[in-house]
Amino acid sequence: MKKNRFPDKDKIKIQFSHVAYRMAERFSMRDTGIYHYQTWTEEETLLKISQCDVLVISGFWNNALLEDAKNLKYVQSIGAGYDQFPLEELKMRGIRLVNAKGVNTNAVAEHALSLMLALTRQVHISRDNQINSFWRGMLGDISLREDELLGKTVLIVGMGNIGSRLAKFAKALDMRVLGVKRDTLHVNGPVDEIYSPGELLNAVGEADYVVLTCPLTPETENIVDKDFINQMKQSAYFINVARGGCVDEQSLINALNSKKIAGAAIDHFKDEPLKKTSLFWKIPNLIITPHTAGETRLYEERVIDITLENLGRLWRNETDLIHQIV
Question: Cα–Cα distance between 206 and 163 in angstroms, integer?
Answer without folding.
Answer: 18
